[in-house]
Specification:
This protein has 19 helices and 19 strands. With 566 residues, the chain is an alpha/beta fold. Among the domains are: 4-8 and 451-564, OB fold (Dihydrolipoamide Acetyltransferase, E2P) (Beta Barrel); 54-220, inorganic pyrophosphatase (n-terminal core) (Alpha-Beta Complex), CATH 3.90.1640.30; 343-447, Diaminopimelate Epimerase, Chain A, domain 1 (Roll), CATH 3.10.310.30. Helix 9 packs across helix 12 and helix 11 crosses helix 14.
């Protein structure tokens, strides 16, 4: 599907003035202005994230009650259960909070539910077991904001439940009846940054606990694991998240944690660490535990006190991740075939018997990107569909699901992603209801894939030195994407080389001595059959990176799209 290019326009005189103030290139200045940092003070703060950018943790509604109850438990020797979600956000938050409480002298247990046997969220049977094991306090991480019945059960049975989450409360029922709820997105919470990940909320609880006990000097050490969960959950890397991630990434290569060192080793991330390395190498291997097996392995990995054992566990995650990739591809292809049955409707809902529940979210992401439609992929099992949903730009997914709550057994999520459970007999009704809602709310322009381009760049400007300058804008991610450039007048010199049957590599030049290597990841599919014969002149939309191989550094253009240069 061809994309509509939206090329950012810049006021060159304003950019030049800011560049002179900051002592950066005019292009860097233009990018800063376009991202909402038009003054020297704003840009300087953005370019230099620091510990001082962290907000006061007690601005979070419910934080004081949570901290006081936890200290009471620690001082009285009560046992505390930490209940984490099974994705990267939840497991990293569980590790972070458990380590914090251990430092403070708490006795803890943890539970990360099995995706396949327990499903998402908090369940009563596991709480019953925790109570039988002596837990009198429970703290959720990255879940719980809609777990009304389990939290009510805890209260009735003498377990004080503290919910820490970042998902949106039920608009009708509000919060569960917990001892305390710490969530920047709950009603009447005036916390200034609403974009914290689940691990980010756990980090703020850790920050408050450590500071209250005179151990604030330990807080920066927890930014490493908070950075991993924040990137993996695709949270906006602006404001407080930018500080958490930037400072966490800076210290990651020197980590002393055996589990993290082993994971970095199997992911080939030992020399440098950027948000790319977390998002595409570290996080998928952590996620593989919850998607393919049991996420509790992550807690075990990070708590290893022996590098050999950590290396073995990391190798298992690496293997699980390869298995996940294979199954994901198979389900995506089957789901894409399924979509053809329903024609050009605005909201895609597909289902298949026995589709692996651990990868349907990834399949939904791929289909939503490919078709530019909000997508639900459901795995059918024993009369129920267990689903994952992914949205497209500008369309609020949770609002769509809340238009027909009666059709689902349970659901939850946010604007971009959601999960649900539904009776098989209601799937067709859900498809119809969501498409009726989409007809009223989903504008046609949303269905046209868009490529936002930051600037036009001449071939002579695009150099290794420029890419090095761009690194001041890192960490890149949601809210601060890697800059996309367009260069025209490029000649295709040879037929593209196909890599691993799915990627394309091009050799391009401008006819004036500027030669480029360009790679199009998944280009066999993403190019939609568009090919340019040798000698063709094209416009190329791309991001630029430094490719390091055996200590050699070279410029590589990563293709986002290309079209004929007429």
């Amino acid at each position: 599907m061809e994309k509509r290019w939206i090329i950012q326009k810049h006021d060159h005189s304003i950019a030049a003035a800011l560049a002179a103030e900051l002592n950066v290139s005019p292009l860097i200045a233009a990018l800063l202005i376009a991202r909402g940092y038009p003054t020297a003070d704003q840009a300087t703060k953005f370019l230099n994230p620091s510990y001082e950018d962290l907000h006061e943790p007690f601005l979070l509604k419910g934080m004081r009650q949570a901290v006081d109850r936890i200290f009471k438990a620690i001082d009285a020797g009560e046992k505390i259960l930490i209940w984490g979600d099974y994705d990267v956000d939840g497991t990293t938050g569980t590790v972070l909070l458990r380590k914090t409480l251990k430092i403070l002298g708490a006795e803890t247990a943890f539970h990360v539910p099995n995706r396949f046997t327990e499903g998402y969220g908090i369940n009563i049977p596991a709480l019953e077991q925790a109570k039988a094991d002596g837990c009198t306090v429970a703290i959720s991480v990255d879940c719980g904001i809609r777990s009304f019945e389990p939290v009510a059960w805890a209260k009735e049975n003498g377990v004080d439940f503290i919910v820490t989450d970042h998902h949106i409360s039920d608009p009708e029922r509000g919060n569960p009846d917990a001892f305390a709820v710490v969530n920047p997105n709950q009603p009447e919470c005036e916390y200034p940054d609403k974009h914290l990940a689940g691990v980010g909320v756990a980090f703020k609880l850790s920050h408050a606990l450590l500071r209250e006990r005179g151990k604030e000097n330990l807080v920066p050490a927890f930014m490493k694991i908070a950075a991993i969960g924040t990137i993996a959950d695709i949270m906006k890397l602006t404001g407080e998240n930018r500080a958490i991630v930037a400072l966490g990434l800076r210290d990651l290569p020197s980590t002393k944690n055996y589990g993290l060192k082993a994971l970095m080793e199997v992911s080939d991330c030992t020399s440098e660490m950027t948000s790319y390395h977390i998002g595409f190498r570290i996080a998928p291997r952590i996620n593989a535990a919850g998607r393919m097996d049991v996420a509790s392995q992550i807690v075990e990995l990070f708590e290893c006190d022996d590098f050999g054992k950590a290396r073995t566990l990391a190798a298992v995650l690496d293997s699980r991740n390869r298995e996940r990739q294979k199954i994901q591809q198979e389900i995506t292809e089957l789901a894409l075939l399924e979509t053809k049955e329903f024609g050009a409707r605005k909201f895609v809902v597909v289902a298949g018997e026995g589709w692996h529940r651990g990868v349907i979210g990834l399949a939904a992401s791929r289909i939503a990107e490919r078709l530019c439609r909000p997508t639900i992929v459901l795995s059918l099992e024993n009369g129920f569909g267990h689903g994952s949903a992914r949205s497209i730009a500008d369309y609020h997914l949770l609002n769509a699901l809340e238009s027909c709550p009666e059709l689902m057994e349970q659901f939850g999520g946010h604007a971009a992603a959601a999960g649900m459970k539904i009776k098989t007999e209601n799937i067709e009704a859900l498809r119809d209801a969501l498409n009726r809602y989409a007809e009223e709310t989903l504008l046609e322009e949303y269905l046209l894939p868009r490529l936002r381009i930051d600037a036009r760049v001449s071939p002579s400007t695009m150099t290794l030195g420029l890419v090095q300058q761009l690194s001041v804008l890192e960490p890149f991610g949601a809210g601060n994407p890697k800059p996309v450039f367009v260069t025209n007048g490029l000649l295709v010199r040879e037929e593209p080389r196909v890599l691993k049957e799915k990627h394309l590599k091009y050799w391009l030049d401008d006819g004036a001595g500027h030669r480029f290597e360009a790679v199009w990841w998944d280009g066999v599919d993403r190019s939609s059959g568009r090919t340019f014969a040798p000698g063709s002149r094209i416009e190329l939309a791309y991001t630029a990176e430094i490719n390091t191989w055996q200590s050699n550094r070279r410029l590589q253009l990563v293709v986002e799209d290309m079209r004929a240069d007429n």
